[in-house]
């Protein structure tokens, strides 16, 4: 008897489900707003065109049961009516790669991918102009069947494919679906016909987006969303001797459990072990060669002077924190010192991100939280103390207790490690305090 292993469906955080529902509501509001707008001089409105296209997809014997294809047909012109369409500009992928000037199909593809839709949906939306150019090259009667408006736009869209472009397109496993979306696009311009309303597609869109959001790719690696509250703690300057000393003294029971039952991996540093590259490598999953932050300082070529890196202007690409946040995971990032905070906050919206150093200055607009000292119940310590790191952990504990975050990134300072040797009274006491809070 053959037994096939089936992976269990992932557990989805309530926040991800809620955020996904809100995202679909917003997207459909954009569609509804197009109800009476002109569709390039055709006899139908933009919304009527989109609904006719989706209806044709549902009636198709080959693709009618493929929700992603139907959804792509509905959203193929999304790049025409989202707010960003008013100011098309150069587009960059999450990996920081330039992907060309924005046109409505590229803008739509980039937009849907940014929301967390599957690569299949995004590609189908981004390909309907490519498919038009392919069909005019391979189907002699196709060009004659285009509307006058569509013929005019062909020239501005790059014109008919040459033979090399045709052969390259034929290697694409999604070519058939892409051509189908294009043909429905051409047919969906009939005035005064009845088709199902937009509301018929809302649950399909929600389920497709929710499923695709359970995982994502960044810098050529695939990641899964957390299924329960998750905490990552970066202990700056954490020489193993500090841990070994505390374990031998029997004062670190929580750390001992982690050592006995957890896992360990040594990373070989390709750059000096500084705070910025360490943390950014963790939150991007790639080394400085890729993410661009190679130290705590950089050399300003114009002035010839070193400058401290205090924001994300040198960061290339996205972060794991940003990608999780886009998909509805509630992110909280708390740093000991403020110089790292703006890097961790890269791309985050509706997140909590603050430093212990500037806890007294937090605002809702800047940090997603305010009155931090009153909230924790004590004043922020001096930045020149081990207590600054303990304040970070106290904030993390409070966030977990109040269910305000799904994914916490807490990064501590190396003050104690700079001042006190492993095994010293001060170092062991600090490690003991860390251990107590980890419990």
TrEMBL record:
It comes from Talaromyces proteolyticus. Gene3D superfamilies: Alkaline Phosphatase, subunit A, Hypothetical protein af1432. It holds the Pfam family Phosphodiest. Residues 47-129 form the HD domain. This is Alkaline-phosphatase-like protein.
């Amino acid at each position: 008897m053959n037994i096939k292993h089936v992976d269990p469906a992932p557990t989805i955080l309530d926040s991800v489900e809620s955020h996904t529902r809100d995202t679909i509501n917003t997207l459909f509001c954009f569609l509804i707003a197009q109800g009476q707008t002109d569709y390039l001089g055709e006899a139908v409105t933009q919304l009527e065109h989109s609904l006719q296209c989706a209806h044709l997809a549902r009636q198709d014997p080959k693709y009618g049961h493929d929700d992603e294809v139907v959804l792509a047909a509905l959203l193929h012109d999304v790049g025409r009516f989202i707010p960003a369409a008013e100011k098309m500009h150069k587009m960059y992928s999450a990996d920081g790669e330039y992907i060309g000037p924005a046109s409505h199909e590229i803008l739509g593809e980039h937009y849907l991918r940014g929301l967390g839709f599957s690569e299949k949906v995004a590609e189908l939306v981004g390909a309907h102009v490519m498919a038009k150019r392919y069909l005019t090259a391979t189907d002699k009667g196709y060009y004659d069947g285009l509307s006058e408006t569509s013929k005019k736009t062909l020239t501005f869209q790059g014109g008919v494919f040459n033979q090399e472009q045709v052969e390259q397109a034929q290697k694409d496993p999604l070519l058939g679906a892409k051509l189908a979306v294009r043909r429905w696009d051409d047919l969906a311009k009939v005035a005064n016909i009845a088709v199902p309303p937009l509301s018929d597609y809302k649950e399909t869109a929600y389920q497709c987006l929710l499923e695709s959001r359970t995982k994502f790719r960044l810098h050529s690696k695939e990641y899964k969303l957390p299924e329960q509250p998750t905490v990552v703690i970066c202990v700056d300057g954490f020489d193993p001797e500090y841990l070994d000393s505390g374990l031998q003294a029997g004062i670190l029971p929580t750390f001992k459990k982690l050592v006995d039952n957890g896992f360990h991996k040594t990373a070989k540093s390709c750059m000096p072990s500084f705070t910025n590259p360490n943390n950014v490598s963790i939150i991007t999953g790639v080394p400085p060669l890729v993410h661009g932050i190679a130290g705590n300082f950089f050399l300003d070529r114009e002035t010839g002077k070193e400058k401290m890196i205090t924001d994300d202007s040198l960061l290339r690409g996205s972060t794991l924190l940003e990608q999780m946040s886009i998909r509805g995971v509630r992110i909280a990032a708390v740093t000991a010192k403020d110089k790292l905070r703006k890097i961790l906050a890269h791309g985050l919206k509706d997140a909590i991100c603050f430093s212990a150093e500037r806890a007294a200055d937090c605002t809702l607009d800047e940090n997603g939280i305010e009155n931090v000292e009153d909230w924790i119940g004590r004043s922020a310590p001096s930045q020149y103390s081990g207590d600054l790191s303990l304040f970070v952990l106290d904030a993390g504990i409070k966030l977990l207790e109040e269910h305000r975050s799904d994914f916490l990134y807490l990064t501590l300072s190396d003050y104690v490690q700079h001042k006190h040797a492993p095994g010293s009274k001060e170092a062991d006491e600090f490690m003991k305090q860390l251990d107590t809070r980890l419990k």
